[in-house]
Design goal:
four-stranded antiparallel β-sheet; alpha/beta; Rossmann fold; single chain
Length: 224
């Protein structure tokens, strides 16, 4: 479903700074992969490239056979809206919208409204353990509940690929564990694939595979 080949990125200087080179990655539906690495190793940059938010120096990124590096900005925007879901460390829940309206945002952007959209939102809120909280305002929710809203919003439109960037960085250990289990369950239940960027070995263990990003590329970590 996702095929990344030979992905290389550097930033202009002076002097130019290499981020990583020759990154290869393949994901199938249902795959859930953790990407680890030191601070500044390019983990978030890798997510931005896969999402079409940044351009590589060279390499290929294909989502369901579509080469992202050849698309213009408008086409990339449409692709993100239809096929990608995002979960961030900062929840990015809009404080002036109800929980249900926050979750419905991806559907609204795709032009889906009415009873079908309402049914999807209700189902997703139930799936993340927030049944009956649709009319609550974000200020009434805990940090863990806000991240559950973010997960529901990321999955409500049925994305092919979910990209999660340190999604539990603002949560205590117990709440983080609950959110990580929920994220995995919902990615699997919705038939998506997922990439979790994290510095936490505990978080990474919730994934099917763990890969470490270095200047030389993306590799499975060696056992000590």
């Amino acid at each position: 479903m996702l095929v990344v080949h030979g992905l290389t990125k550097s930033y202009a200087g002076p002097p130019p700074r290499a981020v990583f080179a020759d990154v290869d990655l393949e994901l199938f539906p249902g795959d859930y992969v953790a990407v680890m690495g030191e601070s500044g190793s390019g983990k978030s940059t890798l997510l931005n490239l896969v999402a079409g938010l940044d351009s590589p120096d060279r390499g290929s990124i294909k989502l369901d056979g579509v080469e992202l590096t050849t698309l213009d900005d408008d086409a990339l925007t449409v692709l993100r809206r239809k096929h990608l879901g995002f979960v961030f460390q900062a929840f990015h829940v809009l404080p002036y919208l109800t929980v249900a309206r926050n979750v419905a945002l991806p559907l609204s952007l795709l032009g889906m409204t009415g009873s079908d959209a309402d049914a999807r939102v209700t189902s997703m809120l139930a799936g993340v353990g927030l049944e009956g909280r649709g009319e609550s305002m974000p200020r009434e929710l805990s940090g863990g509940e806000l991240q559950r809203v973010a997960i529901a919003r990321a999955l409500v439109h049925g994305p092919r690929l979910v990209l999660a960037d340190e999604p539990t960085g603002n949560l205590d250990a117990e709440t983080a564990g609950q959110v990580l289990r929920l994220l995995r369950e919902q990615i699997k239940a919705n038939g998506a694939a997922g990439v979790l960027v994290t510095h936490s070995p505990v978080a990474a263990q919730t994934c099917d595979r763990i890969l470490r990003l270095t200047l030389a590329g993306l590799r499975a970590p060696t056992s000590s």
